[in-house]
Amino acid sequence: MSGRTVDVHTAAAGRPEGKRGARVGVTGIELRRSAALGAALITVVVGVGALYVATGRWSTGWMALALTIREYLLLLWPLALAAGAWQGRREHRAKVGELFATTARPRTARMLPVLGTMALTLTVAYLLVTVAGIAWIVTTASYVPLLSFVVVTAVGALSLVAAAWLGLGIGRLLPALVTAPALAVGGVLLVFFATISPPERVAAAISPAHGSGGFHDYQTIDNRVSGALTISMITLAVTGLLLFVADGWRVRVMAVLPVLLGVAVATAILPTDRDVLTWPVDPVARELVCTKDTPTVCVSRVHATVLDTITPPAREGLAALAKLPGAPTAVHEDTHTIGYRREQPTVPDGVVTVEVRIDKRGRLAHPDVVFLEVVRGLGVPYDGDCRNRNETVERAAAYWLMGREPRSDVGLVPGMIEEDPAITTGARTLWQGLRALPEAEAVARVTAVRDALLACRDPEGLLSGSTR
Question: What is the layout of strands, in order, in the sheet containing 330-333?
Answer without folding.
Answer: 288-290, 296-300, 330-333, 351-354
